[in-house]
Amino acid sequence: MNEKDLFYFCKLVETGSYTATASYFDVTQPTISMAIKRLSNKFDDPLIIQKNKKSKLLLTTAGELLYKKAVILLRDISSINYDVKHASDKKIRLAFSGEAGSIYIPDIIKKFYQAGITSLLDTHLERSSDAFEGLTQGDVDVAIYSWMVPINDPDYFIHNLERTELVIITGLDDPWSRISEISAAQLRNRKFIARSHGYLTRECLEQEAKLGDFNPNIIYTATTMKLMIDLVKRNVGIALAMESSLRNVNDIHIIHLHSGQKLWAYMQIAMRKSFVPNKYQRKGINILRHFHA
């Protein structure tokens, strides 16, 4: 069994097509077929069953188990390959979301500055979902993100930084500027400024809409949190935002949702357990592992 055969097998499972898999790797279709045959012979199991050329590929029980194990193994191999090739790197790849990162990145940079190692930081602004995906794929070493539920995965060192409430914000001239609490259903007829899909506040807005049984009327999709807040200040619409992001914001009104309909954002910092820092990275990784909000 070799690494390439496992790559072919996993991609075939994901595409469901020998032709698409061969095209993806720029090899011939028989190359994929021979790889599957080698794996079948090794495990004494067909792994993949196809009744005819037009029928759907089906995994045997052994095939399902091999796919699950192989995905983990190939991810670890990719991580090992990167880490070994970059064993002398003097960089720590840190991905952070706009909401979570804007709160913590200044303090992290300050700690690196005090330790005389600011040059180690290679930072990337990402959506929360992309920041963690980058960590999963081995494209970054550390991720700071926020999500509706805290992630708890044994493959990562994860430290909870903060839990913050999702709140409605309006301008000071908005008709709701004297209201302190509302239900999700009351949001039905309001116009929203929102972030694009994949951002936490957008996912939470859609979750609140489900609770209130309506489709949110999004009149503008803001590219940044600042733009979203600035448009709310100008009474263009209202928005759902993380309360922790509003600490230094003036000229807005905050409204809480009813207790049974509140949503929360969990800020976390995570790093792969498989990541072994080299002698240059060790000091910075130690700062990040013990970083507190």
Describe the 3D structure.
The chain has 293 residues and is an alpha/beta fold. It folds into three domains: 3-85, Orthogonal Bundle (Arc Repressor Mutant, subunit A), CATH 1.10.10.10; 92-162 and 266-289, Periplasmic binding protein-like II (D-Maltodextrin-Binding Protein, domain 2); 163-263, 3-Layer(aba) Sandwich (D-Maltodextrin-Binding Protein, domain 2), CATH 3.40.190. Helices cover 40% and strands 23% of the residues. The protein has nine helices and twelve strands. It has helices at residues 3-15, 18-25, 29-43, 61-85, 98-114, 128-137, 200-212, 225-233, 282-289, and strands at 48-49, 58-59, 92-96, 121-125, 142-147, 156-171, 181-182, 191-194, 217-221, 239-242, 252-257, 264-272. Strands 3, 4, 5, 6, 7, 10, 11 and 12 form an eight-stranded mixed beta sheet that branches. Strands 1-2 form a two-stranded antiparallel ribbon. Helix 1 packs across helix 4 (61-85). The two termini are 47 Å apart. The model has no long low-confidence stretch (mean pLDDT 91). Keywords: DNA-binding, Transcription, Transcription regulation. This is LysR family transcriptional regulator. InterPro entries: LysR_HTH_N, LysR_subst-bd, WH-like_DNA-bd_sf, WH_DNA-bd_sf. GO terms for molecular function: DNA binding; DNA-binding transcription factor activity. It holds the Pfam family LysR_substrate.
